[in-house]
Amino acid sequence: MKKFNLLLLGLPLLFLLQSCLIRQGPNMGFLTSSSLDADAEIVSLNVPQLMVKSFIAKEAKASNDKALNALSKNIKGVKVMILNQANNSAGVRQDFRNFLKKEKMEEYASIISGGDRVSINGLIEKDRVTKLMLGISSNGGEHIFVEIKGKFTMKEIADAIEVYE
To answer: What domain of life does the UniProt record list for this protein's source (predicted)?
Structure first.
């Protein structure tokens, strides 16, 4: 009976964690084969809501950060894609810009510092931001893309940014 109960509790847990896989292929559909070289390395990670919330709640509690705690309640999931040795950086950035146009995402900020480019973009539905896309590119062919899904107000995002400035 104990084994059956463990099995009954373990299956939903496995179901929740199934998407938390690291794989060596893109998990975002905007990369084209023409912008990637044969030597390019891609590492993708899907992080489910359960893991994101527990990690952020722990950090917010440790730092006593109310803005981060409020923001963490609205996160649904996070995707991360890391691309190394992309010799066609301009092509990767163009693919990213085309994806943002196709998804009708607005650019909130674009920062160029020391050869690195950071782009913060969001998709607004009604009065809420439902998707945030962060694109970080360096001239050395390294790119990091982060997609955060949730329902955030602009005030929550501004409060979280203000804390870390």
So the answer is: Bacteria
Whether residue 120 contacts residue 134, with contact meaning beta carbons closer than 8 Å, is answered with: yes
Cβ contacts of residue 57 below 8 Å, gap of 6+?
69, 72
Alpha-carbon span 53 to 15, nearest angstrom: 17
Euclidean distance between CA atoms 162 and 152, whole angstroms? 15
Indicate the helix (H) or strand (E) that contains 102: helix 89-102
Q: Which residues of the chain have pLDDT under 50?
A: none
Q: What is the dihedral of CA 147, 148, 154, 156, to 10 degrees?
A: -140
Tally: H helices and E strands in the chain: 5, 7
State the pairing for strand pair 106-113/75-84. Answer: unpaired
**Pairing relation of β-strands 116-125 and 143-152?**
unpaired
Query: What SS3 class is residue 3?
Result: helix
